[in-house]
Design goal:
Elements (H helix, E strand, L loop, with lengths): L5 H28 L4 H7 L13 H6 L6 H32 L5 H12 L3 H14 L6 H5 L6 H11 L5 H8 L4 H12 L1 H17 L2 H6 L8 H6 L2 E2 L2 E2 L1 H33 L4
Antiparallel strand pairs: 1-2
Helix pairs in contact: 4-8, 4-11, 5-8, 8-11, 8-14, 11-14
């Protein structure tokens, strides 16, 4: 196998670095703006001017002051994201696995319904889902946000596609050894589906973490708001706290970055392998 040309390799690395700098430019501008007062932002907008006399931690201090709701919103978002992601991975993987492995009456109909639900916008489902949450008395609760989107059609489809590529011989061998179906799934199939779990963990967590419309409908009191709802309240007809909004928004990126660091080795393999099976 021929070794790559060093000159081509250097050029490729420089091109990728240039693209990375362009992609990160908005983030650097936001990071710098988070230390500036709102008057400076309204006057000059986002820029990369490093004016040391204007930089301070006042915006971040305000977020954590006594009486500020930011930490409460952060906690609400974390609770909803963690519980919602775990339950979504659990139930969606089981449904996708069942559709891929087992043969039962109506299997194709169920799969077609899953595909159909994927094509329906959330806005169309909001009214019936809201009435359902009222009946279940889940308004202004964590469960009211989590339950309606807990079993995600996209995740079901992804897990099904991934499970189609798993060796069926392992299932037969496990059954011969006397394993139950649940034991086969949790002890044999789940470890083999780690890349799929890693990819879906990032996507589902981002979905819950960034969700705005549905939590806005369900959550009523300020103590139950999530970060997107709480931060959006900083922009009002009576004044726009862009400095606080930018500082708070930057801190919301941290959990997603941490999650991606932990699951990044599974992310690409999970998407590429699961996306072409079946």
């Amino acid at each position: 196998m021929a070794r790559p040309n060093p000159v081509v390799k250097i050029i490729l690395v420089l091109m990728l670095l240039f693209i990375a700098v362009i992609a990160l430019f908005p983030f650097f501008a936001l990071l710098l703006a988070s230390f500036k007062p709102s008057t400076e932002l309204l006057r000059y907008g986002l820029n990369l001017k490093l004016q040391a006399h204007l930089l301070s931690f006042k915006n971040y201090i305000y977020l954590f002051q006594e009486g500020a709701k930011y930490l409460i919103w952060y906690k609400n978002s974390l609770v909803i994201t963690i519980i919602g992601t775990i339950l979504s991975l659990f139930f969606s993987s089981m449904v996708g696995y069942a559709l891929a492995v087992y043969d039962f009456k109506g299997k194709n109909v169920v799969f077609i319904l899953v595909l159909a639900v994927m094509m329906i916008p959330m806005e169309i489902l909001m009214l019936p889902l809201y009435k359902l949450m009222v009946s279940f008395k889940m308004i202004n609760t964590y469960w009211g946000v989590i339950v309606p989107i807990m079993v995600a059609p996209v995740a079901i489809f992804f897990f099904r596609q991934y499970a189609l590529g798993l060796p069926k011989e392992l299932l037969d061998a496990a059954r011969i050894d006397g394993c139950s179906e649940f034991k086969i799934f949790f002890n044999i199939m789940v470890p083999l589906m780690k890349p799929a779990f890693g990819a879906m963990a990032i996507l589902q967590a981002m979905g819950y973490w960034n969700s705005f419309l549905w939590p806005t409908v369900i959550l009523r009191t300020e103590d139950m708001f999530t970060l997107p709802i709480g931060l959006s309240g900083l922009l009002t007809p009576y004044g726009n706290n862009y400095d606080i909004l930018i500082s708070g928004s930057l801190l919301t990126i941290l959990p997603i970055i941490i999650l991606f660091i932990f699951f990044q080795r599974y992310f690409i393999s999970g998407l590429t392998v699961g996306g072409v099976k079946g």
